[in-house]
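>> received
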Amino acid sequence: MPQPFRILSIDGGGIRGLIPALVLAELERRTGRAVADCFDLIAGTSTGGILALGLAVPGEGGRPRYSAQDLAGLYLKEGARIFDESLWRRLTNPMGLRAAKYPSDGLEGVLAQYFGEARLKEALVEVLVTAYDLEKRDAFFYRRRRARADVRYDVPMRVAARGTSAAPTYFEPLLVSWPGDRDVLVDGGVFANNPAMCAYAEARQGLGGSAEDILLVSLGTGIHTTPYRYEEAKGWGVAGWARPILDVIFDGVADTVDYQLRQLLPAGADGRPRYLRFQTDLDAGLSEMDDTSPEHLEGLQRAAEAILHRQAPAFEALVASL
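>> returned
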């Protein structure tokens, strides 16, 4: 039987990207293969975009530069550097009301360290990374196949990673200048925090896959379970909605895409899965995208373990299919 076109999609979620990174580390351990060898297309939004690019960046001998465990280490070792808010910034910019909550220096420094000057066209596997162009008011996708066809889109991977992770209110937008044009990019989570449907469309339209021969694996970064009460939300104005609206949009988009793909990609006639979603509820206090405390990171590691435990049959099926 011919092998299906294999897609990996990774949600956004800031520091919670540690969850899918650890799930993928276990996948590499169980299969004995790099993630880039297991999939034909890796898609990601925001922190998922950083992971997608990190898994595909070339290293020595044309092999992946990083394992999934290495990228889990990015969150554990570099999270505090990315989400670094000085006391002066907290005092002069309380709750990020005057400017982005965090300066971009830490994020850009980490991306430069991990990606160097590797370019998008050099990715070891097809990649799709989402962003949104504020000036053109349009969805924007960094794709390997586009970078190979048009030199204007062949940016350093660190630039694509910075554009996809420019979460509104957390980091300032990214300005990418071309001769005679420019892009002003923010986090693709504003329209596709779960980029699995974008990846499905890319596989069907741009890469020649058909619905019958697709295996799509979607990794979440945890579901918010803390409710927003009416008594609290009814008094919110613009400032009150600034952070909650991101949570609502991100969760709503992710759930909608999950529903759509469950309808579009049911199990095949032979019983083999064509769509697998790995996700977990988050305990109280674990939903923050920028909490890099040891306690929070430990909680995210437990969340990854919960996915592997609660969805063990689905994970076994995935390992077998790869």
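>> The first strand starts at residue 5 and ends at 10.
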